[in-house]
Amino acid sequence: MNPVTTALAPLTADAARLRQRIDTFAALSEPGAGEGVTRLAYTPLERQAHAVFTREMTDLGLTVWTDAAGNTLAERPGTRPGLPALGTGSHLDSVPNAGAYDGIAGVVAALETAHLLTEHDIEHAHPVRFVAFAAEEGARFGQACTGSRIAAGLTGPADLETKQDADGITLADAMRSVGFDPAEAAAARWQPDEWAAFVELHIEQGSVLESTRTPVGVVDQISGSTRIMLQVTGRASHTGGTPMHLRADALAAGAEIVLLAESIAGDTRHRGTRISVGKIEASPGSITTISGRTRLYVDIRDIDSDRQRLTAAELVDRATAVCRRRGVGLTATTLADASPVVLPRRLRDTVATTCTGLGIDYRVLPSGASHDSQMINHIVPTGMIFVPSRDGISHSPLERTGADELATGTTVLAASLLALDQQLRPAPQL
Ligand code: HGY
Ligand code: MN
Ligand code: MN
Predict the structure, then answer these.
(1) Is this prediction's pTM over 0.90?
(2) Which residues constitute the domain of residue 98?
(3) Residue 67 CB–ligand 1 contact under 6 Å
(4) 192 or 428: which leads in pLDDT
(5) For ligand 1, atom 4, which residue shows the shortest CA distance?
């Protein structure tokens, strides 16, 4: 091992290697699922992506294991026995028809960091762990960050048996289908005293960095999200034989609720809250039948916890009034609810100081999206590094981040981990 500590001598990430790894993961997509990348939680494809991660880390000589939640971890040992680990990583699953960078950017940055430490034979006192989380996206089951929630002890077997996807497959059955026993999930729980700090690199999924021409973002807080399924129950009947004044049209009521949600987000009392209805299921879904049942999947995001929950409550109250006036029924089911988090100042400052030391401009900003870091921060002091998203687009095949932009963020990530290794070393015993 090279005895020279390199906390200040920057390791420069290799953009070509990053590009090649992004392309390798992007190729793992459901055949016939349409454009972009589709690699959903707890599917064989997600496991193929973890197998690529495992192979690359094994080739670098690291110890690699997969836990009971399906998270894959690799460790490069430290030089001082008994110290807790420094960690980095992100997720390998995607939403349907996604881009190639959400989550993957943080995983390839972790791979590149492991590559740099190994090829330069860098010494670090703390062990460094590289993590590929399972099932971060809530797109399939509503519940986001399942792998990291299990690691943080925030989700247990009961939860896993109740969440279902559109085909009625439970989260637990999906886990079993790819070889994991949800009853064993508790074994995947991280022990806080085994970890010193965690830093995740992720694409911004917004347009602040690009619009301000800032290469790196240092995240101070991560939005919370409340996800609700509103079910409107009307009366299915013939579109030709049923006069307008005798209808109980579930889809028309649902459409009014979608616009109501949008108007609440525009209200000054809710300024900053983002409400979206990204999915509607109208049944029976026939052009000649008035919808008897319509389901709206609502996502409410905010960095202000009270406002997030008040917005959700107000939407349900006012949607109930819409349905009463229209003579249809309404039920509201909470699919998931995560609070906003403020990330610890100490890590934020380390990343910021590292950027300054490297002569790389940065900007402190909140995250509109949720992340595994939001869960891991419950048990390990966590930081986040953002790299720019082209046109602020994400969760779309148009999602883009330049290889050079990713390399800059990865250089900051590697240097930040080495700076933390220096900072967090116990004082020598006199
Ligand atoms: O939905 C989110 O915010 C994240 O991309 N999982
Ligand atoms: Mn995402
Ligand atoms: Mn993500």
Answers:
(1) yes
(2) 3-222+341-423
(3) no
(4) 192
(5) 370
